[in-house]
Amino acid sequence: MAEGAGSPSSPRLDPNHARLIRELVEEKCGLIFGLDSLTFMERRISPRLRAVGLGSFKDYYLHLKYDQAGSQELGVLIEQLTNHETYFFRERYQLDAFRLEVLPALVSQLGGLRRMNIWSAGCASGEETYTIAMLLSEETALKEWKVRVFGTDISRAILAKARRGVYSEKSFRVMEDKERRRFFERARSGWSVVEEVRALTAFGHFNLLNREKIALLGTCDVIFCRNVLIYLSASARAQVVETFYMRLRAGGYLFLGHSESLINVTTKFELVSLENDLVYRKPKDARD
Description:
7-stranded mixed beta sheet, 3-stranded antiparallel beta sheet, disordered N terminus
């Protein structure tokens, strides 16, 4: 049996050190999902233990907490703990709501500016970011507009894949063949996003708890943050939602995942009932 897979010689993660590591991760990025399981944490952390040449989880915690390279290693660990599962045109009913109802409203609202900024927060390997860009590229009303879709994630490794824009079959599980032919070209290792779509996108490494860096995005008209909040602690979730409110233009929209809501979060967002979905909107008369 391989080391790290439960062999007698493998170090074991005890509840106390699991709690200490969990606290560091939560403080850094708010992540809690799965961290209540010793088995999950041990399986995800063990490879990092070996990578930095340490013999125990206690030593690993001390490395994260006090070593000069600990902050960088904590970032690598968070990449190991986060879920990057996504695909093109995920939750299509929400995308229909965005395309058929939200976009026309924004075109009317922003007609004087003729620019639109959309933020895909927690974009993972970029499928959502490119999907939004594909929809925007098809909108004739936006042809003379300056449009940008920002994709951000806490994982540098997964962002590198997003920037490459080359995908395998598993990313196309619900995408129609005509859509693939329209927006992709054959590449040596899969399918590559066409330049027309790439030109609308930009990717950046962002921690959703770092408001100072997020401010660099400027004002957004729509924020997609789907299936991210469910992984965060209650306090981190509240902070992130407040950040979204601050970054949105008055009248801007927030799309969450189908299993997420702001029911238990104190917020100034208003819930808007669309034909295809329920979305959150910053009030049109909001001053902050």
